[in-house]
């Protein structure tokens, strides 16, 4: 059993209070005393009390009501109520008010110490969970969004404002601009932060598999469905679901998604029973959904429902001044992962990064820095650690300067996909993973750019 802990005894019978204090102190607990509700609440203000042992009958109040107030003010503090007379209605109400337990004085004295240990164990577990939640929250908070460019700060400010609401959010931006990072930050800054955040890439599945992933299925619904399966909307109940690459969702499934957004209801594949969930939806796309609507690939009613609150994330080439901070962050991260000292980034190295067009945005920068850290020696990253496309060629390009402009984005994207396919020796699954896009998206790009 766990030892230690801070106990508060609230009882107006001084002799009994002193006796209980002596018994509990011998078990290694620190013990405070109070004779009234008011004095007890004053002691609790220190924030150090783990468990309160409280009499039901007090001069200035009732312990059953006090238990509710304590649990409201100090949710990590447990309350054990003591009474001279067994009273079933009081006991029931005490438990409803959040009391850990309810025992009778005298008859149950031998139960107090074991009960304290169980209460302390629960308090310590809850505090560990809270600490982990804080760590997760800091990992995915807006503080992790690095950069000070006006476009980025504008996007962060909008995201912070919408986070406190339950409004559906549509994140717009090119592949690799950090849309999932923003989605996580919005979730962590919302009242739903303690619940699940579930992410799914809509381009990673066929229509049938995506339908099953989102809504679940009943056993026997299709070949291979040997047991019931919960869908991601069920998993995210009370929390947030992030639908990445929403523009890739098959039109047939868009009607089902629209129903969930409007009513919170859906039916599992192969079932007839309607389920209801309370889920916040954050969607993201790198496609022009208005154009997709014109081409009959996306429902206009779903677009209007998703785009209640739009946030556009800037491409990395639109925030080049943020590259030094991002590069330093990634360099420190990968140095720690590879057990290397944090490298110095040479001036020429940073200049080369800032002259590049970044078709793959932050995701591409992260991959480049990881490669550089692996190749770098003597605690410094130099231009020699960069891939060939960062070096001068025969077209009189400046060091690290790409020969296409932002107006030639399609060419930049085509070149980047070619480079990654060459790196993976034609392995399209691995190329899609490195590019951070779905396999169906990659095949569409290969066909669009005639990359065979």
Describe this entry's structure for a reader.
It is built from 18 helices and 16 strands. Helix 6 packs parallel to helix 7, helix 10 crosses helix 12 and helix 17 packs across helix 18. The protein has 3 domains: 131 residues, Response regulator (Rossmann fold, 3-Layer(aba) Sandwich), CATH 3.40.50.2300; 173 residues, Rossmann fold, CATH 3.40.50; 132 residues, Orthogonal Bundle (Helicase, Ruva Protein, domain 3), CATH 1.10.8.60. It is an alpha/beta fold. Helix 1 links the parallel strand 1 and strand 2.
Key phrases:
single chain, 452 residues, alpha/beta, Rossmann fold, Helicase, Ruva Protein, domain 3, 3 domains, 5-stranded parallel beta sheet, 16 strands, globular
Summarize the structure.
The chain contains 18 helices and 16 strands. α3 (63-73) runs parallel beside α4 (88-96) and α10 packs across α12.
Draw up the topology in text.
Elements (H helix, E strand, L loop, with lengths): L5 E5 L3 H12 L4 E5 L2 H8 L6 E5 L1 E2 L2 E2 H11 L4 E6 L4 H9 L4 E4 L4 H31 L10 H14 L5 E4 L6 H10 L8 E5 L5 H9 L16 H4 L4 E5 L6 H13 L1 E3 L6 E3 L3 E6 L3 H6 L5 H7 L2 E4 L10 H15 L6 E2 L1 H8 L6 H15 L4 E2 L27 H15 L4 H8 L3 H10 L4
Parallel strand pairs: 1-2, 1-3, 3-6, 6-7, 8-13, 8-14, 9-10, 10-13, 15-16
Antiparallel strand pairs: 4-5, 11-12
Specify Rg, calculated over alpha carbons: 30 Å
**CATH architecture field of the largest domain:** 3-Layer(aba) Sandwich
Tell me the span between the first and last alpha carbons: 66 Å
CATH class of the largest domain, anyone?
Answer: Alpha Beta
Q: State which percent range the strand residues make up.
A: 5-15%
């Amino acid at each position: 059993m766990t030892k230690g802990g801070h106990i508060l005894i609230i009882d107006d019978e001084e002799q009994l209070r002193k006796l209980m204090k002596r018994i509990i102190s011998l078990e290694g607990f620190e013990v405070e005393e109070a004779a009234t509700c008011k004095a007890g609440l004053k002691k609790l203000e220190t924030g150090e009390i783990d468990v309160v042992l409280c009499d039901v009958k007090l001069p200035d109040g009732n312990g059953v009501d006090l238990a509710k107030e304590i649990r409201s003010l100090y949710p990590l503090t447990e309350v054990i109520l003591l009474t001279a007379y067994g009273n079933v209605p009081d006991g029931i109400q005490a438990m409803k008010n959040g009391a850990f337990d309810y025992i009778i004085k005298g008859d149950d004295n031998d139960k107090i110490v074991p009960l304290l240990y169980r209460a302390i164990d629960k308090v310590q577990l809850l505090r560990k969970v809270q600490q982990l939640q804080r760590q997760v929250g800091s990992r995915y908070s807006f503080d992790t969004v690095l950069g000070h460019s006006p476009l980025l700060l504008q996007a962060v400010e909008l995201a912070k404002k919408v986070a406190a609401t339950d409004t559906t959010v549509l994140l717009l931006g090119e592949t690799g601009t950090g849309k999932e990072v923003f989605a996580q930050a919005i979730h962590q800054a919302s009242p739903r932060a303690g619940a699940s955040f579930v992410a799914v890439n809509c381009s990673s599945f066929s229509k049938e598999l995506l339908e099953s992933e989102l809504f679940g299925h009943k056993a026997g619904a299709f070949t291979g469905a040997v047991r019931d399966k919960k869908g991601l909307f069920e998993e995210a109940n009370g929390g947030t679901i992030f639908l990445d690459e929403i523009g890739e969702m098959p039109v047939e499934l868009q009607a089902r998604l629209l129903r969930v957004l409007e009513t919170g209801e859906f039916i599992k594949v192969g079932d007839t029973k309607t389920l209801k969930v309370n889920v916040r939806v954050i969607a993201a796309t790198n496609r022009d959904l208005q154009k997709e609507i014109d081409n009959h690939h996306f429902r206009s009613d779903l677009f209007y429902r998703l785009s209640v609150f739009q946030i556009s994330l800037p491409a990395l080439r639109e925030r080049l001044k943020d590259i030094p901070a991002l590069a330093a962050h990634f360099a420190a991260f990968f140095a720690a992962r590879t057990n290397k000292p944090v490298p110095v980034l040479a001036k020429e190295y940073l200049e080369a990064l800032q002259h590049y067009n970044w078709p793959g945005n932050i995701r591409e920068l992260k991959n480049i820095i990881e490669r550089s850290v692996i190749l770098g020696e003597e605690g410094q990253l130099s231009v020699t650690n960069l891939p060939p496309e960062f070096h001068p060629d025969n077209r009189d390009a400046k060091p690290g300067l790409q020969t296409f402009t932002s107006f030639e984005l399609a060419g930049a994207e085509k070149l980047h996909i070619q480079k990654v396919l060459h790196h993976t020796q034609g392995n399209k699954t691995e190329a899609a993973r490195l590019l951070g896009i779905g396999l169906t998206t990659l095949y569409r790009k290969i066909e669009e750019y005639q990359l065979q």
